[in-house]
Design goal:
Length: 135
Amino acid sequence: MNIDVPDDIRANLITCRNLVSAGKHTADVREALAASLEALPMIEVPMTRSLLEIWLPEALAAYDSHNDMEATTILNFLHNLPLTESQVQVWNHSYFLTVELPEFLGSFEIEHAPTEELFNTLGFVAAGCRLHCQQ
């Protein structure tokens, strides 16, 4: 599977989220997630690239272990992140910070939370939003 532009990554995330949430386990889902992971260097936005580097492997592992709810939650969190600098300009970071991020963080039970990944996520989000607010 070829990924030619960053928006192909978004399309993969959305398609895979929809299929996994419907309980579909196919080679196409795994291939699309793996292709998206390989294409991460083309993402222009450092915060997004960092978050995908952390969470896309987690989504893939959840998918492989048939933890559809966790895989869907992670893919849902990732699919709206800005992939290019032009997308950053129109990205609603306030909505992300007040709705999407808390919803994502709240989806983990404390005893099962991937602690290091969550703390890294907060650090990348804080740095990315700080940069966005300065523009």
